[in-house]
Amino acid sequence: MATPVLLKVSDLKVAYGGIQAVKGVSFEVKQGELVSLIGANGAGKTTTLKAVTGVQPVAAGEIDFMGKPIKGQGAWNLVKQGLVMVPEGRGVFARMTITENLQMGAFVRDDKAEIASDMDKVFTIFPRLKERAEQLAGTLSGGEQQMLAMGRGLMARPKVLLLDEPSMGLSPIMVDKIFEVVDSIHQQGTTILLVEQNASRALGLANRGYVMDSGEITMDGEAKQLLADPRVRAAYLGE
Q1: Cβ 37 vs Cβ 210: under 8 Å
Q2: Which of 16, 81, 133, 162 is the most buried (most CB within 10 A)?
Q3: Which stretches does DSSP call E strand in 126-206?
Q4: Among 4, 6, 38, 48, which residue's Cα sits nearest to residue 160?
Q5: Does the pLDDT value for residue 35 go beyond 90?
Q6: What global pTM score does this model have?
Q7: Per residue in 37-49, pLDDT tens?
Q8: Among candidates 59, 42, 43, 39, which has minimal Cα distance to 51?
């Protein structure tokens, strides 16, 4: 039986004023996959994610989630359906505690016992957050805030989790930790679309990958093949 496609983006175009930032991008994410979208800064990766999750208006193209068209739907409605983004720059609620931030991740749910159980699971994945549960999010380090943003995303019970540049601005040790956690979340069954500038790490974890350049998908394929491709190695791995 074929693996269901959870997220399908067809000929997506996004413009800011007169500038076309995304120029007819198409890709898909199947159930259980970890798919990486790599590219240099300014390639249009974040704009693509914002358009898919209802944060940025779409100029043209189609977006299907769980087999249904979702273009033009509000971001909160998409979270309710299980399309959840952890934004670039983390976006934690600085004046709220870790626990309150995690509760905000579950704002579309009303199953109190299950929410409590999921919070325990998040604290198991991120023991450092459990130790600081009543600490204000604004006082955490960058890496701890990234953990919190990912934990908050998981609290929404995503069918597809979209991670936007989770390693950006973090120390090498924290980058290792974040990629370990991404791998662990995927191994536990969460379908992930990972947007990353760190091409070698992103493709190292992924099943498949897409390369984005100047608003277009220029290459795609199995992650191992992309990682071995001389063009990818020259452009993104400094070889």
Answers
A1: yes
A2: 162
A3: 160-164, 191-196
A4: 6
A5: yes
A6: 0.94
A7: 999 888 999 999 9
A8: 59
At 95, phi and psi to the nearest 5?
-95, 10
The answer to whether the Cα torsion of 99, 116, 157, 52 is positive or negative is negative
All residues at 6 or more sequence positions from 153 whose CB lies less than 8 Å from its CB, including other chains? 84, 85, 86, 105, 161, 163
Residue 239 has pLDDT above 70, yes or no: no
How many Cα atoms are found within 13 Å in the side-chain-facing hemisphere of 151?
A: 30
The whole-angstrom separation of Cα 50 and Cα 175 is: 23
pLDDT tens column, 223-233: 999 999 999 99
Tell me the C-alpha to C-alpha distance, in Å, between residue 128 and each of 24, 86, 100, 115, 155.
42, 19, 16, 19, 17
Residues 6+ away with beta carbon under 8 Å from 76: 108
Number of structural domains, the chain? 1
Pairing of strands 60-65, 68-69: antiparallel
CATH number for the domain that contains residue 228: 3.40.50.300
